[in-house]
TrEMBL record:
Signal sequence, renumbered to the chain: 1-32
Swiss-Prot/TrEMBL keywords: Disulfide bond, Membrane, Signal, Transmembrane, Transmembrane helix
Chain intervals for the UniProt region annotation (Disordered): 288-319
InterPro entries: Folate-binding_rcpt-like, Folate_rcpt-like
Domain Folate receptor-like: 64-181
Residue stretches of biased makeup (Basic and acidic residues): 307-319
Regions that span the bilayer: 243-263
Pfam families, per database record: Folate_rec (PF03024)
Protein name (record): Folate receptor-like domain-containing protein
Length: 319
Protein backbone atom coordinates (compact mmCIF):
# COMPACT_ATOMS: atom_id res chain seq x y z
CA UNK A 1 0.00 0.00 0.00
CA UNK A 2 2.79 2.39 0.81
CA UNK A 3 4.57 1.86 -2.49
CA UNK A 4 1.33 2.49 -4.41
CA UNK A 5 0.52 5.75 -2.58
CA UNK A 6 3.92 7.38 -3.14
CA UNK A 7 3.48 7.95 -6.92
CA UNK A 8 0.02 9.38 -6.34
CA UNK A 9 1.37 11.71 -3.68
CA UNK A 10 4.10 12.94 -6.02
CA UNK A 11 1.56 13.60 -8.75
CA UNK A 12 -0.62 15.51 -6.30
CA UNK A 13 2.31 17.66 -5.22
CA UNK A 14 3.27 18.40 -8.81
CA UNK A 15 -0.32 19.31 -9.64
CA UNK A 16 -0.51 21.58 -6.59
CA UNK A 17 2.76 23.30 -7.54
CA UNK A 18 1.49 23.83 -11.09
CA UNK A 19 -1.74 25.35 -9.79
CA UNK A 20 0.07 27.68 -7.38
CA UNK A 21 2.60 28.86 -9.96
CA UNK A 22 0.43 31.75 -11.28
CA UNK A 23 0.01 33.09 -7.76
CA UNK A 24 3.74 33.64 -7.36
CA UNK A 25 3.77 36.10 -10.24
CA UNK A 26 1.85 38.57 -8.09
CA UNK A 27 4.01 38.24 -5.00
CA UNK A 28 6.54 41.07 -4.62
CA UNK A 29 8.90 38.72 -2.82
CA UNK A 30 8.77 36.28 -5.71
CA UNK A 31 9.30 39.04 -8.24
CA UNK A 32 12.27 40.31 -6.28
CA UNK A 33 13.58 36.78 -5.98
CA UNK A 34 13.54 36.31 -9.73
CA UNK A 35 16.02 39.13 -10.26
CA UNK A 36 17.78 38.85 -6.91
CA UNK A 37 16.12 41.99 -5.50
CA UNK A 38 18.07 44.31 -7.80
CA UNK A 39 16.94 47.40 -9.68
CA UNK A 40 15.55 46.67 -13.15
CA UNK A 41 14.45 48.80 -16.08
CA UNK A 42 10.77 49.76 -15.91
CA UNK A 43 10.17 50.47 -19.60
CA UNK A 44 10.59 53.30 -22.11
CA UNK A 45 8.29 55.56 -20.08
CA UNK A 46 10.99 55.90 -17.41
CA UNK A 47 14.75 56.58 -17.48
CA UNK A 48 17.08 53.70 -16.70
CA UNK A 49 18.41 53.29 -13.18
CA UNK A 50 22.07 53.96 -12.55
CA UNK A 51 21.80 51.18 -9.95
CA UNK A 52 20.47 48.71 -12.50
CA UNK A 53 21.69 45.26 -11.53
CA UNK A 54 22.34 46.39 -7.94
CA UNK A 55 20.16 46.33 -4.85
CA UNK A 56 18.30 49.52 -3.84
CA UNK A 57 20.30 51.69 -1.48
CA UNK A 58 20.43 55.04 0.25
CA UNK A 59 20.39 58.01 -2.12
CA UNK A 60 23.68 59.86 -2.42
CA UNK A 61 23.89 63.53 -1.53
CA UNK A 62 25.31 66.14 -3.84
CA UNK A 63 24.89 66.42 -7.58
CA UNK A 64 22.99 63.13 -7.97
CA UNK A 65 20.72 63.62 -4.96
CA UNK A 66 16.97 63.29 -5.36
CA UNK A 67 15.31 66.52 -6.49
CA UNK A 68 11.88 65.03 -5.76
CA UNK A 69 10.45 62.00 -3.94
CA UNK A 70 12.89 62.51 -1.07
CA UNK A 71 10.84 60.35 1.27
CA UNK A 72 12.53 57.43 -0.53
CA UNK A 73 16.08 58.57 0.28
CA UNK A 74 16.73 55.76 2.75
CA UNK A 75 16.17 53.00 0.18
CA UNK A 76 15.55 53.52 -3.52
CA UNK A 77 16.76 52.78 -7.03
CA UNK A 78 16.36 56.42 -8.10
CA UNK A 79 18.78 59.29 -8.38
CA UNK A 80 18.62 62.74 -9.95
CA UNK A 81 17.87 61.30 -13.41
CA UNK A 82 14.51 59.82 -12.42
CA UNK A 83 13.45 62.60 -10.06
CA UNK A 84 14.41 65.38 -12.48
CA UNK A 85 12.26 63.79 -15.16
CA UNK A 86 9.38 63.59 -12.68
CA UNK A 87 9.93 67.23 -11.72
CA UNK A 88 9.72 68.28 -15.37
CA UNK A 89 6.42 66.41 -15.69
CA UNK A 90 5.05 68.29 -12.68
CA UNK A 91 6.17 71.62 -14.11
CA UNK A 92 4.44 70.86 -17.40
CA UNK A 93 1.30 69.77 -15.58
CA UNK A 94 1.25 72.94 -13.48
CA UNK A 95 1.84 75.16 -16.52
CA UNK A 96 0.30 74.11 -19.81
CA UNK A 97 -1.60 71.29 -18.13
CA UNK A 98 -3.59 73.76 -16.00
CA UNK A 99 -3.81 71.18 -13.22
CA UNK A 100 -5.32 71.82 -9.82
CA UNK A 101 -3.40 71.52 -6.57
CA UNK A 102 -4.99 68.16 -5.82
CA UNK A 103 -4.01 66.89 -9.26
CA UNK A 104 -0.41 68.01 -8.78
CA UNK A 105 -0.22 66.21 -5.44
CA UNK A 106 -1.62 62.97 -6.88
CA UNK A 107 0.57 63.14 -9.97
CA UNK A 108 3.68 63.66 -7.86
CA UNK A 109 2.90 60.47 -5.96
CA UNK A 110 2.30 58.71 -9.27
CA UNK A 111 5.62 59.86 -10.75
CA UNK A 112 7.45 58.94 -7.54
CA UNK A 113 6.11 55.38 -7.60
CA UNK A 114 9.15 54.31 -9.60
CA UNK A 115 11.35 55.27 -6.63
CA UNK A 116 9.56 52.85 -4.32
CA UNK A 117 12.10 50.08 -3.62
CA UNK A 118 9.45 47.41 -4.17
CA UNK A 119 8.56 48.86 -7.56
CA UNK A 120 12.17 49.37 -8.58
CA UNK A 121 13.03 45.67 -8.27
CA UNK A 122 9.93 44.50 -10.14
CA UNK A 123 10.24 44.18 -13.94
CA UNK A 124 7.83 46.07 -16.12
CA UNK A 125 5.81 49.24 -15.56
CA UNK A 126 4.79 50.02 -11.97
CA UNK A 127 1.69 48.08 -10.96
CA UNK A 128 -0.91 50.46 -9.52
CA UNK A 129 -3.81 49.61 -7.27
CA UNK A 130 -7.21 50.44 -8.82
CA UNK A 131 -8.14 52.75 -5.93
CA UNK A 132 -5.00 54.85 -6.33
CA UNK A 133 -5.39 55.00 -10.11
CA UNK A 134 -8.98 56.14 -9.63
CA UNK A 135 -7.90 58.92 -7.26
CA UNK A 136 -5.34 60.18 -9.79
CA UNK A 137 -7.87 60.10 -12.62
CA UNK A 138 -10.51 61.89 -10.56
CA UNK A 139 -8.10 64.63 -9.48
CA UNK A 140 -6.65 65.17 -12.97
CA UNK A 141 -9.77 64.64 -15.08
CA UNK A 142 -9.81 68.30 -16.17
CA UNK A 143 -6.06 68.68 -16.66
CA UNK A 144 -4.62 68.77 -20.19
CA UNK A 145 -2.47 65.97 -21.59
CA UNK A 146 -0.89 65.01 -24.89
CA UNK A 147 0.84 61.97 -26.35
CA UNK A 148 4.60 61.86 -26.59
CA UNK A 149 5.65 61.38 -30.24
CA UNK A 150 8.50 59.01 -29.33
CA UNK A 151 7.03 56.79 -26.63
CA UNK A 152 3.33 57.27 -27.51
CA UNK A 153 2.68 57.69 -23.79
CA UNK A 154 0.17 60.14 -22.35
CA UNK A 155 2.01 62.99 -20.63
CA UNK A 156 1.15 66.46 -19.33
CA UNK A 157 0.71 69.04 -22.06
CA UNK A 158 3.70 71.24 -22.90
CA UNK A 159 3.84 74.59 -24.78
CA UNK A 160 5.24 72.83 -27.86
CA UNK A 161 2.39 70.32 -28.15
CA UNK A 162 -0.15 70.97 -30.88
CA UNK A 163 -2.91 68.64 -29.70
CA UNK A 164 -3.85 68.77 -26.02
CA UNK A 165 -7.04 67.50 -24.42
CA UNK A 166 -8.40 66.85 -20.97
CA UNK A 167 -7.74 63.54 -19.29
CA UNK A 168 -11.41 62.59 -19.34
CA UNK A 169 -11.37 63.10 -23.12
CA UNK A 170 -8.36 60.82 -23.58
CA UNK A 171 -9.72 58.00 -21.42
CA UNK A 172 -13.18 57.00 -20.31
CA UNK A 173 -12.04 55.40 -17.05
CA UNK A 174 -9.13 55.39 -14.65
CA UNK A 175 -7.57 52.10 -15.76
CA UNK A 176 -7.28 53.21 -19.37
CA UNK A 177 -5.87 56.56 -18.27
CA UNK A 178 -3.14 55.02 -16.10
CA UNK A 179 -2.24 52.54 -18.83
CA UNK A 180 -1.99 55.34 -21.39
CA UNK A 181 0.32 57.15 -18.95
CA UNK A 182 2.72 54.19 -19.00
CA UNK A 183 1.61 52.33 -15.88
CA UNK A 184 -0.11 49.00 -15.35
CA UNK A 185 -3.22 48.54 -13.23
CA UNK A 186 -4.55 45.51 -11.40
CA UNK A 187 -7.39 43.96 -13.38
CA UNK A 188 -10.27 43.51 -10.95
CA UNK A 189 -11.83 40.94 -13.27
CA UNK A 190 -8.86 38.63 -12.82
CA UNK A 191 -9.39 35.71 -10.46
CA UNK A 192 -6.06 36.50 -8.80
CA UNK A 193 -6.81 40.22 -8.34
CA UNK A 194 -6.92 39.90 -4.55
CA UNK A 195 -3.33 38.67 -4.55
CA UNK A 196 -2.22 41.35 -6.99
CA UNK A 197 -3.68 44.10 -4.81
CA UNK A 198 -1.26 43.08 -2.06
CA UNK A 199 1.66 43.80 -4.39
CA UNK A 200 0.40 46.91 -6.19
CA UNK A 201 1.42 50.47 -5.43
CA UNK A 202 -1.30 52.19 -3.42
CA UNK A 203 0.36 55.59 -2.98
CA UNK A 204 0.15 55.63 0.80
CA UNK A 205 2.75 57.61 2.72
CA UNK A 206 3.37 54.80 5.21
CA UNK A 207 4.30 52.51 2.35
CA UNK A 208 6.60 55.06 0.71
CA UNK A 209 8.59 56.65 3.48
CA UNK A 210 11.06 55.04 5.81
CA UNK A 211 10.00 54.15 9.32
CA UNK A 212 12.13 56.90 10.86
CA UNK A 213 10.68 59.58 8.58
CA UNK A 214 7.12 58.45 9.28
CA UNK A 215 7.77 58.53 13.03
CA UNK A 216 9.31 62.01 12.81
CA UNK A 217 6.35 63.27 10.80
CA UNK A 218 3.88 61.87 13.31
CA UNK A 219 5.82 63.39 16.22
CA UNK A 220 5.87 66.78 14.49
CA UNK A 221 2.13 66.62 13.87
CA UNK A 222 1.57 65.65 17.51
CA UNK A 223 3.58 68.65 18.73
CA UNK A 224 1.62 70.96 16.46
CA UNK A 225 -1.66 69.51 17.70
CA UNK A 226 -0.59 69.92 21.33
CA UNK A 227 0.46 73.52 20.74
CA UNK A 228 -2.81 74.27 19.00
CA UNK A 229 -4.83 72.68 21.80
CA UNK A 230 -2.91 74.72 24.40
CA UNK A 231 -3.57 77.96 22.52
CA UNK A 232 -7.24 77.06 22.18
CA UNK A 233 -7.42 76.34 25.90
CA UNK A 234 -5.95 79.77 26.76
CA UNK A 235 -8.34 81.46 24.32
CA UNK A 236 -11.37 79.71 25.83
CA UNK A 237 -10.18 80.57 29.33
CA UNK A 238 -9.94 84.25 28.40
CA UNK A 239 -13.37 84.18 26.75
CA UNK A 240 -14.93 82.71 29.90
CA UNK A 241 -13.36 85.33 32.17
CA UNK A 242 -15.39 88.00 33.88
CA UNK A 243 -15.15 91.67 32.98
CA UNK A 244 -13.12 92.55 36.08
CA UNK A 245 -10.56 89.82 35.43
CA UNK A 246 -10.21 90.93 31.82
CA UNK A 247 -9.58 94.50 32.99
CA UNK A 248 -6.94 93.26 35.42
CA UNK A 249 -5.30 91.27 32.64
CA UNK A 250 -5.32 94.37 30.42
CA UNK A 251 -3.75 96.47 33.18
CA UNK A 252 -1.13 93.80 33.74
CA UNK A 253 -0.35 93.79 30.04
CA UNK A 254 0.03 97.58 30.03
CA UNK A 255 2.36 97.41 33.03
CA UNK A 256 4.48 94.77 31.37
CA UNK A 257 4.60 96.81 28.16
CA UNK A 258 5.66 99.92 30.08
CA UNK A 259 8.35 97.92 31.86
CA UNK A 260 9.68 96.59 28.58
CA UNK A 261 9.77 100.10 27.11
CA UNK A 262 11.58 101.42 30.18
CA UNK A 263 14.18 98.67 30.01
CA UNK A 264 14.64 99.34 26.33
CA UNK A 265 15.19 103.05 26.98
CA UNK A 266 17.75 102.25 29.66
CA UNK A 267 19.54 99.95 27.30
CA UNK A 268 19.55 102.62 24.60
CA UNK A 269 20.85 105.24 27.04
CA UNK A 270 23.63 102.91 28.12
CA UNK A 271 24.55 102.30 24.51
CA UNK A 272 24.54 106.04 23.76
CA UNK A 273 26.71 106.78 26.82
CA UNK A 274 29.15 104.08 25.81
CA UNK A 275 29.28 105.47 22.28
CA UNK A 276 29.98 108.99 23.63
CA UNK A 277 32.83 107.69 25.80
CA UNK A 278 34.27 105.78 22.88
CA UNK A 279 34.01 108.82 20.62
CA UNK A 280 35.78 111.04 23.19
CA UNK A 281 38.52 108.48 23.57
CA UNK A 282 39.02 108.32 19.82
CA UNK A 283 39.15 112.13 19.60
CA UNK A 284 41.76 112.27 22.38
CA UNK A 285 43.89 109.68 20.63
CA UNK A 286 43.64 111.58 17.35
CA UNK A 287 44.63 114.87 19.07
CA UNK A 288 47.57 113.16 20.76
CA UNK A 289 48.68 111.74 17.42
CA UNK A 290 48.50 115.19 15.79
CA UNK A 291 50.55 116.74 18.62
CA UNK A 292 53.21 114.07 18.28
CA UNK A 293 53.35 114.64 14.53
CA UNK A 294 53.74 118.41 15.02
CA UNK A 295 56.45 117.88 17.63
CA UNK A 296 58.40 115.60 15.32
CA UNK A 297 58.04 118.07 12.45
CA UNK A 298 59.23 121.01 14.59
CA UNK A 299 62.18 118.98 15.89
CA UNK A 300 63.18 118.08 12.36
CA UNK A 301 62.93 121.73 11.24
CA UNK A 302 65.04 123.00 14.15
CA UNK A 303 67.68 120.37 13.46
CA UNK A 304 67.80 121.37 9.79
CA UNK A 305 68.14 125.06 10.68
CA UNK A 306 71.00 124.32 13.08
CA UNK A 307 72.88 122.45 10.38
CA UNK A 308 72.47 125.32 7.94
CA UNK A 309 73.79 127.84 10.52
CA UNK A 310 76.78 125.66 11.19
CA UNK A 311 77.56 125.43 7.49
CA UNK A 312 77.25 129.20 7.14
CA UNK A 313 79.72 129.76 10.01
CA UNK A 314 82.17 127.22 8.70
CA UNK A 315 82.25 128.58 5.14
CA UNK A 316 84.11 131.97 5.94
CA UNK A 317 86.72 130.11 7.95
CA UNK A 318 87.42 127.83 5.07
CA UNK A 319 87.77 130.82 2.75
Amino acid sequence: MKSRSDPRRCKDLLLLAWLLAPFCGYCPQAQAGQNGGVCVFQGNRFPKFSLEGHAPGKASKGRIDLTLCRYYRQKTCCDVVQTHAALLMLQRLAGSGEASTQCLEQWEVLECSICDPRVGVTPGPPLLCPSFCESVYTACANAYFSTDPLTQVLMPCSPRDVLCAKAKEWASNSSVFCQLAGFSVVDTRDEFASLAENACFDGKAEARGSVDEVVKTKQKNTRRANHKSFVDMIRKYIENMGVVIRILWAIGGLVLTAGVLHLRRRALSKKSAASVVLRNKQMQEQARARQQALYKASTANSAGAAKQDKRARDSPKAA
